[in-house]
Amino acid sequence: MPPSLLFDISGIDLNKVEFGIEEIRKENPQSFEMSQLDGVNWADLETLRCVGYKDITDNEFWVRGHIPGRPIMPGVIMVESAAQLASFFMKRIYGLTGFIGFSGIDKTKFR
């Protein structure tokens, strides 16, 4: 049985950027190597869901040493990316103010 998806993204235009890096920088304090969100393609306040992305290049700090010749984005960086997307959503879309931190993750496996 194939794994189930969190939600169907087939109706989302992944080439459309609703919020770019400049809007993200206004909300998220991460910079330099710790900036792990480059754009938000879609956000829905009613369902509290969003889709964002990180452009991966050969210049990422982890590429050279994380499986040389076949770099794989480390799970902890994936989680950081998701946390930055959630923080942006809660501030810019949901309207919360102040610092928003990510404090944990339950029942997670990286395979």
Helix content: 10-25%
The largest sheet has its strands arranged as 1-2
Shape: globular
Elements, N to C (H/E): HEEH
Largest sheet: 2 strands, antiparallel
Low-pLDDT segments: none
How far apart, in Å, are the first and last alpha carbons? 17 Å
The CATH class label of the domain at 21-93 is Alpha Beta
Label the structural class.
alpha+beta
Q: Please work out how many helical segments DSSP would assign.
A: 2
Features:
111 residues; alpha+beta; Thiol Ester Dehydrase, Chain A; two-stranded antiparallel ribbon; 2 helices; 2 strands
Question: How would you characterize the overall build of this protein?
Answer:
- With 111 residues, the chain is α+β, with helices and mostly antiparallel strands.
- The protein has a domain at 21-93: Roll (Thiol Ester Dehydrase, Chain A).
- Helix content is 23%, strand content 10%.
- The longest helix has 19 residues, at 75-93.
- The radius of gyration is 15 Å and the shape is globular.
- The mean pLDDT is 91.
How would you sum up this structure in a few lines?
With 111 residues, this protein is α+β, with helices and mostly antiparallel strands.
Write the layout of secondary structure elements.
Blueprint: H1 21-27, E1 39-44, E2 49-53, H2 75-93
Antiparallel strand pairs: 1-2
